[in-house]
Predict the 3D structure of the following.
Amino acid sequence: MSAPPVPGQSVRFDLSYPASAHYNLYSLMVATPPMSGSLPFSLAGFTVLGQPSIDPATAISTFAGQIQPGQSVSHTMTVPANPALAGLAIDVQSIDGSIPSRTIAFSDNELVMAVQAQRWQTPTVLSSTAGAEPPRLARRAQGDGVMVWIENASGDVATSRYSPTTGWSPVVTIDASAAASSLDVGIDAAGNAICVWLDNTDDSVRASRQAAGGAWSAPALLETGAGEAGHPKLAVDAAGNAIATWWQYDGAFNTGVVSVFAARYVAGQGWGTAVAIENDNQSWGEPPNIAGDAAGNATVVWRWGYQQGGNWYSTVMSNRYSVGSGWGLAQVVTTGSNISGNLPPVVGVDAGGNAVAAWEAYAPGNSLRELHVARWTGGTWGTTVRLDPTTASSSHDPKVLMTGNGEAIVSWWELDGVGKVMTSTLQGGTWSAAAAAAAPYGTWARSALLAKDGTGRITLTYSHGAPGGYPSCFCTQWLPGVGWLTPYRIDDNNHNGVSGASGLHADASSNVLAVMGEQWFSGNYKIVATEFR
């Protein structure tokens, strides 16, 4: 620093943003002498998102603003005419460390700094011959992960591993039976992965495991029932134990009622015998979804259809696996009896054992769908709550993200003639009013996914496009104290249709990994991955 800032004088500094960048948020940290309360300087020309954050202990104030790619902005910082601040020195840097720390001397004029904030990277194409079923993704807190998908030409289960340092590994085949569908994948804290899928050669559920750094095991049969099975889902805990769940006919092939089954993998021992977690022999339980915590406890939810008085009804049921005691009894999640058959209910679980289930329900007297949720606390499911506004629109495809300490955020898309992605948050036991995650960008927004990183930021991806046009994958992010940012596109712009990301996971720092299936102009599907870092 050539000279300390003189109270009453100003310094201007410019920020430039690369034209190739995809992300239009930048942040600055300004280090000042220890203080509390208001800042001892003014910052002109800076559009602040939310309130500046002041840490009295470190004397660092954090500002977040927006700038368009390829543009630059100028800010003027002025120290008030106060003799007590005659020795004030102000250091400026980017919050992600991409700008070297600079001490602003008021004799410096028009200090220029290039902002290299986090952004979505150029998408990587892992397969150009995949089937239409979307890929699945699992990721560790350390940032590495695994993706699985089905090849269109062969019907094989394919996979690739991701490393933050080396990128995606060469594609390998897990199962070459040429008849796979409905797959899922999970990963433990050590990087060991498990994949489950439906083998359509005999309508059975199979699984394979890959030790970290090793090869995938030969496919293992998880069930021996004569009835057709379907919709396998998986939860893997931190120690490498896993639970797979699916629906299955009680009779030969596709006869009889449908029950919900589960099998547990114990690290170092293998898969146990499949057990029915709902089999009342008179109703239809399908299809299940599962969520588990790091300790190995898990919650399964499913749509349960039954006949009464000559009419068919459906509701939501659940069962919980507790480490040490096993499966409990199937329980009713909601007293509602008109659950939509469009999509199965979904569930989220946090480290404290709290759970939130969400589902579509038909509105009374018409075919519009409502968005309903229920909370599991204290060993029981609470009262069903409707989240979507009571309007003449239809709500679809809920997703649940547990954000910790019993809190959650639920997203869904609402068809109101245009289509938009809505969210509601659970805090202090109360759900917030439904609101659009961002100003709608285009039309027909749908297929949302949610992820939370180690900084508290929430990433939401979704698909949008005009009716009859080509849908694309977009992203918006929520920052604490700021709210939802302007959405922007993250796919590779070389396709004629993508239904949003099908896998979205954040690591313990601030990086987010997204995977999606894109219908290519050639007619095949591409498996595409991109990371926000």
